[in-house]
Design a protein that fits this description.
heterodimer, A: alpha+beta, Alpha-Beta Plaits, subunit c (vma5p) of the yeast v-atpase, domain 2, 4 domains, 6-stranded antiparallel beta sheet, 4-stranded antiparallel beta sheet, 20 helices, 10% strand, B: mainly alpha, 19 helices, 69% helix, 0% strand, globular
């Protein structure tokens, strides 16, 4: 729970003929994170890049087909994978399926096109009613060139500007935000000019359909009858499509699972390297899985495989992280993930983050009533969102518990406080808030020492501003300061210790170079940088500690705000103010407190020890690409 | 009045960046560089360093991406109106990528080839690799449905399907882009509006005029088509100017409206090339002049954007010149930076 799962680096040396079965076996196991390596004299596998490309193209075609049929195949296991052969053979199956589906789709599209054409012609025919002229007469006008059609609404005015050399009539009949139905007319002499201009304004003419004959009123009735027939046809085609989907379901599902798995395998093999007939499969695997992995690979390769396992050394930065966070802490893990994933050598800070979050949130939002409401809202959200729901619920419960300590519910003092009432003990509360901050910051220092010690990063352990030197400087500033003010420590001794520690931090770089070697910065540059680092560290220690004063300030503000709402809700329509005020406090202030909590957590707390530069463990699987679900496991 | 409040941070950043533009001395070194590698070496410790830490074949694309990212980064400090304008303006090279995708789909070219010429624009607003893999322009429009490009592409789709040429799609997205740019510019007021019109407006006018003449001279479109494929309301080049251009008015006369002097003796093709260079050089001159005064307006970012673009353009010219063994003297007329084309 506190550290990422231990990993082993694995190198498999596999014969070419065993490559496919071994990769398949590894993918089925879902515990192997591929690492691309390019040792000297080993070549990339160009052949598999090509196969992966071909399979990828087939996958996309099938995906398009499934989308067209509106069918999502269920997940099911697929046996006997053979990506190299499938890349050649599955194309014929897909082409056949496409042909069957396309035939149906062509018919649907034809009907839909007819339907749209006639439907678009309806208002056009209706607009001709005042003329009282048979439609066929308009089709055969001798002196006037008349066209009707749709065009982008924004182009109607533009085309009128463009037709500056001829006489014309342009009437928009109907329009929406995007398209307008337009009737345009000119003399037959200018027809070519007008048509060209309209075309360049993306005008799409609607021919008066041949089905429309006679007076416009009669033509309209005929069109409506045609539309009814088309509607019926489309309904029948929809049912035909459903039947086709039912019929093709098993074949489509099998094909989909196979291609998806083939693509995963080919994509994986594309990343391996080869030397003659031997392939190198490199990657990472959880130490706990190594024995099972060995057995599975041996079986797949019929014992013709060399398996090399190496524990990662502390200098490695590319080891993937697999966290084993308990299920109940998962929502908090997401909060950590927003900042960054712990690297393999780092501590998983989720448990500490959860504790700090609840403590800080509860302290700022302490109120039995509002906390309870927030918890109820969290329970409601829980059903829809498994991350924010639990977080909001936990925050609400923490607020309610602190409400108990404050003796406050909905801003009213319901009972004697178990600890203190914010508005009555402001100073105590503010001091307590800073004390809580000091505790958290020290926890941050300790966790940083742990992280640095874990990777034997001794310069960071001893000389970092969050290391031993930083901790000593922090306590000299804070504790020594208090002692000096109280007269229990002489000011000169205090200042001397402070100066020595500051000097050490200032001269850190030259000292580190002398003690542990490495590239030496020019002394002048190192001292200037060191000075500003020291300055920043000193300011940071003070500001980070004082930053926690907001824990108390928000608690006071919360109670004050709640009281104001209570005060104004005592009138005749007071319940409205009470409801609106409570909603605002729970919703708006709850959100602000959440943001403040995250700010303290990320900046003041995490900033001391957590770098979050890890990348997640993504095991190879047959479910399309790399499965991220195992990046975090309970 | 509130300019100093809104622009305090941005003008400081712009001035800092202005001082990072390549010095005359650096340009002399660049012009004297013998090979592309030498050129890359000289630029490695300049703000362009990152763009030259790749294979020489990618220099040009990276330079353009550098421009887009620089401009986008500066927009963080702007307030809403100017920010919207500058962010939209910063996306202008996205149109080039989109046209590459459209041509790839229309001419059924291999996506891999197109990927080699796509500009690596940051921050990535569109998933170019995915767009290259769609089956058709219709599918592309479906992929782009939540972007500002969907509507203009949909408008031109039918015409494209009839004629099979991506020209109509390209015209439509160009128009859509510029119309929106003009709308955003017109939403500004006061000093912001004046400077936007002075710099960006001049550029839009120039583009509009170039379109009108190119459509007439090269594509031989009808006057009605030319009017339909250009902006009707830029700043100084309005629909009447476009109509005149479309119906045969000489280029030098219309260029005068933009304060540009072109010889009346040039043939139209030559005059078009001249207009393009002279027009942009005039904008560069105005951009330099902007830095002589207070910069508490959107003109600060715009001026820097144009100066940087001119510098990027000239670097690309230089790189291409080196590739074809052209001397600095021969490249001179193709530089936008005033000092460079005069000196070279």
């Amino acid at each position: 729970m506190f550290v990422p799962e231990r990993m082993q680096e694995v190198n498999l040396f596999v014969l070419a003929e065993d490559l496919e079965p071994v990769t398949e076996a590894i993918a089925r196991l879902e515990v192997f994170h591929i690492q691309e390596v390019h040792p000297e004299a080993w070549e990339p596998v160009g052949e598999w890049a090509e196969i992966a490309g071909r399979l990828g193209a087939l996958e996309r075609r099938l995906e398009h087909l499934l989308a067209t049929l509106d069918f999502s195949p269920p997940d099911s296991p697929v046996q006997g994978l053979r990506p190299r052969q499938d890349a050649k053979e599955l194309e014929a199956d897909i082409t056949l399926l496409e042909a069957r589906v396309t035939h149906l789709l062509d018919r649907v599209q034809q009907r839909e096109q007819d339907f749209r054409r006639l439907q678009a012609a309806l208002p056009q025919v209706a607009s001709l009613q005042p003329l009282g002229v048979p439609v066929e007469t308009l089709r055969g006008l001798r002196h006037v060139h008349l066209v009707t059609g749709m065009m982008p609404s924004g182009n109607v005015a533009r085309v009128a500007e463009a037709l500056f050399q001829i006489h014309f009539v342009l009437i928009p009949i109907a329009r929406d935000a995007k398209r307008s139905l337009v009737v345009a007319a000119s003399s037959q002499q200018d027809a070519a000019v007008m048509d060209r201009a309209l075309k360049s304004a993306f005008f799409e003419p609607i021919e008066l359909p041949l089905e429309a004959r006679g007076q416009p009123v009669d033509a309209r009735t005929v069109l409506e009858e045609h539309l009814a027939v088309l509607r019926r046809d489309l309904a029948e085609l929809a049912s035909e499509r459903r039947q086709l989907v039912d019929e093709l379901k098993p074949e489509l599902s099998e094909l989909w699972q196979r291609i998806r798995a083939d693509v995963s395998l080919a994509e994986a093999m594309r990343r391996f390297t080869r030397h003659g007939e031997v392939y190198l499969i490199a990657g990472w695997i959880p130490t706990s899985q190594i024995e099972v992995f060995r057995q599975v690979v041996d079986r797949a390769a019929r014992d013709r495989v060399v398996i090399e396992t190496l524990p990662p050394d502390t200098a490695r930065r590319d080891v993937p992280t697999l966290l084993r966070t308990p299920r109940w802490l998962r929502p908090f893990e997401r909060l950590v993930a927003i900042f960054g994933l712990p690297s393999y050598h780092e501590l998983n800070p989720t448990a500490f983050a959860a504790g700090a979050f609840l403590l800080m949130y509860g302290m700022m939002f302490g109120d039995m009533g509002h906390g309870g409401l927030l918890a109820l809202a969290g329970l409601y959200v829980w059903r829809r969102n498994r991350i924010f729901g639990p977080l909001i619920t936990a925050a609400g419960i923490s607020g309610a518990l602190f409400g108990l300590l404050y003796g406050v519910g909905f801003g009213k003092a319901f009972m004697p406080p178990l600890w203190l009432q914010p508005l009555h003990s402001i100073q105590t509360l503010l001091v307590s808030a800073v004390v809580a901050g000091v505790v958290l910051l020290n926890l941050g220092f300790i966790l940083n020492l742990f992280n640095a010690g874990r990777i034997r990063d001794w310069p960071r352990f001893w000389f970092d501003k969050s290391g031993v030197l930083g901790l000593a400087l922090y306590w000299t500033l804070l504790g020594g300061g208090v002692l000096a003010v109280r007269g229990w420590l002489s000011v000169s001794v205090w200042l001397t210790i402070l100066a020595v520690l500051s000097l050490l931090l200032w001269w850190k770089e030259p000292l580190l170079t002398r003690l542990w070697g490495g590239d030496a910065e020019p002394l002048g540059e190192a001292l200037v940088t060191g000075f500003f680092e020291l300055f920043e560290a000193l300011i940071g220690y003070a500001s980070n500690s004082l930053s926690f004063v907001r824990l108390g300030a928000f608690a006071v503000a919360h109670e004050g705000l709640s009281r104001v709402v209570l005060l104004y809700s005592s009138g005749p329509s007071g319940w409205v103010i009470l409801v609106v005020g409570t909603v605002l406090i729970v919703g708006f202030e709850g959100l602000i407190v959440g943001i403040q909590t995250l700010r303290l957590e990320y900046y003041e707390f995490f900033g001391r020890f957590f770098q979050g530069t890890g990348h997640s463990f993504r095991p190879l699987s047959l479910k399309g690409g790399h499965d991220e679900s195992l990046a975090v496991q309970s | 009045m509130l300019g100093p409040v809104f622009y305090a941070s941005v003008q400081a950043r712009v001035r800092a960046r202005y001082s990072d533009l390549l010095s005359e001395k650096r340009w002399r070194e660049l012009l004297a560089a013998e090979t592309l590698e030498d050129l890359g070496q000289i630029l490695r410790d300049t703000p362009y360093g990152q763009a030259f830490r790749v294979a020489p074949v990618e220099f040009e694309r990276n330079l353009i991406a550098h421009w887009a990212l620089e401009l986008y980064t500066l927009t963080h400090s702007l307030h809403s109106g100017p920010r919207d304008l500058m962010r939209w303006y910063a996306r202008k090279f996205e149109l080039d990528n989109l046209k590459t995708v459209l041509r790839t789909l229309s001419y059924r070219q291999l996506p891999g080839r197109a990927e080699e010429v796509l500009l690596p624009l940051e921050p990535p607003t569109l998933a170019w690799s995915r767009l290259l893999e769609v089956a058709s322009v219709q599918a592309l429009i479906a992929e782009l449905r939540d972007t500002p490009y969907a509507a203009p592409l949909t408008d031109a789709l039918e015409r494209y399907l009839q004629e099979g040429s991506p020209f109509y799609l390209e015209v439509s997205i160009d128009l859509g882009y510029f119309q929106h740019l003009v709308r955003l510019m017109n939403r500004l007021d006061g000093q912001d509006r004046r400077w936007a019109e002075r710099l960006l407006g001049s550029w839009i006018d120039l583009q509009n005029l170039l379109w009108a003449y190119r459509y007439r001279v090269y594509a031989r479109l009808s006057p009605e088509e030319i009017v339909n494929y250009t902006l009707h309301h830029a700043v100084r080049i309005d629909v009447d100017a476009v109509r005149r251009a479309a119906t045969g008015s000489p280029l030098w006369r219309e260029a005068e409206r933009l304060g540009l002097e072109l010889s009346s003796q040039l043939d139209e093709r030559k005059a078009l090339e001249e207009l393009e260079m002279t027009g942009f050089r005039e904008i560069v001159r105005r951009a330099h002049a902007a830095f002589d005064g207070l910069l508490f307006h959107v003109g600060s970012v715009l001026a820097y954007a144009f100066l940087l673009e001119a510098e990027v353009h000239d670097l690309i010219t230089l790189i291409e010149g080196k590739r074809h063994d052209m001397t600095a003297e021969k490249l001179g007329p193709y530089f936008l930076g005033e000092d460079r084309y005069v000196r070279a």
